[in-house]
Structure formats: C-alpha cells, structure tokens
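Tokens in:
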C-alpha cells in the first residue's frame, strides 16, 4: 500500500508504480504536485493493467474537468475501486456530469467525495440523478459546492427513491428554507440514511420545525449535523 502523500510525481513514475505493483490496493496522491497528464496517465494505466486498486485519494491536487473525465472513464469499466476521494479540486459541472455518467454504470464504488469542486446546479443535478440509478454507493459527500435550493429538491427526490445510501454530506451548498423543507420531508419515507451532515446552509426556523416532525417518524437516522444554519434558539 502507498499511504504517504507524495509531493511531486511524473506520469512515467506513476505508470511504473502501478504497472510493477498489480496487487497495489491503496494509492494516496492527496496534495501531490501533479499536472493533468499525470491524472490521464493514471487513468490509462488503470484501464490497461489488471490493477487491484480499491482505494484512491486524489484530493487537493488541483485537477480540472478533464481530470475528472479521465477518472470517470475508468469507473465505467472498473469493478474493483471502492473508495474515491477527489475533494478540493476544480472539476466543475463538466467533470461532475462525467462522474455522474460513470456512477450510472459502476457497480463497485461505495464511497465518493466530490466536496469543494466548484460544482454548480447542473453538475449537482446530474450527480443526484445518478444516485437514483446507482445501487452500490453508501457514502456520498458533495458539500461546499453550489447546489442551491434547486439542488435541494433533487436531493429530496433522491432520498425518496435511493435505498442504498447510508451517509450523505450536503453542508455548505447554499440551500435555503424551501429547499431545506423539501429535504426534511423526504426523511419521512427514507429508511436507509443513517448519517446526514447538513451544516452551513440556511435552514431557518420553519424548516427546522418540519425537520423536527420528520425525525419523529424516521427510524434510521443516527447522526444529524445542522450546525451554523440560522436556526434561532427558542
């Protein structure tokens, strides 16, 4: 396993690491100084080699939508990857849409983190639509993006239909009261979500009351974070 983050990496070195270590299960490139061609090389190597990689951390390395597209191509055919952390990059809507398309066909990934990736409404909607189809993802983090209330309604729809997701992080998505109410109402019928991180939005008092009523009937949720949501103390 390669667990220690690296500071600088070339595509040829990465290709050698994966090519000569087909049993490698964990690769951590978090915070590494890499260029787009390294991510492309990573995806090509994973497509050409019979890699056993299950855990990939490529967070905080600054890659663009093209990098996400390269990783998405891998996920369409890869059946071993279970954990993918790509937070704190800049994949944007185009990268998010590519990942969403991959999620619709991937059958192995159980954890995906796309937090802080400059994803706006279009990309958020694509990802949430994919979760209606995906049957393996248990943990999904899309926090610190720009879903707004439009995305909140999509989150609500997803929670009504998805029967697999156990942990959802939707903090700091610029969701306001109406969107918060929609999400709260979906908890009336969702019986699988165990952890909901909803901090840093603008729930407000009325939506908080709707959430309180939903929690009276919900039997699955064990962890709820609604910190910094403009809820007055009453």
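Residues out:
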């Amino acid at each position: 396993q390669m667990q220690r983050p690296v500071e600088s990496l070339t595509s040829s070195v990465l290709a050698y690491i994966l090519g000569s270590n087909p049993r490698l299960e964990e690769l951590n490139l978090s915070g590494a100084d890499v260029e787009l061609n390294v991510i492309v090389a990573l995806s090509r190597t994973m497509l050409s080699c019979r890699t056993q990689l299950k855990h990939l951390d490529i967070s905080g390395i600054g890659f663009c939508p093209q990098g996400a597209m390269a990783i998405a191509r891998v996920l369409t055919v890869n059946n071993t990857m279970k954990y993918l952390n790509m937070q704190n990059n800049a994949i944007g809507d185009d990268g998010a849409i590519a990942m969403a398309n991959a999620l619709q066909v991937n059958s192995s990934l159980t954890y995906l983190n796309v937090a802080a990736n400059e994803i706006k409404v279009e990309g958020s909607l694509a990802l949430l639509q994919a979760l209606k189809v995906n049957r393996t993802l248990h943990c999904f983090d899309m926090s610190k993006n720009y879903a707004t209330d439009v995305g909140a309604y999509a989150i609500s729809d997803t929670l009504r239909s998805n029967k697999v997701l156990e942990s959802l992080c939707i903090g700091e998505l610029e969701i306001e009261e109406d969107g918060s109410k929609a999400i709260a109402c979906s908890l009336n019928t969702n019986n699988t979500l165990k952890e909901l991180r909803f901090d840093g939005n603008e729930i407000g008092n009325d939506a908080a009351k709707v959430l309180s009523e939903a929690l009276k009937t919900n039997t699955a949720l064990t962890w709820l974070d609604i910190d910094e949501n403009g809820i007055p103390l009453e």
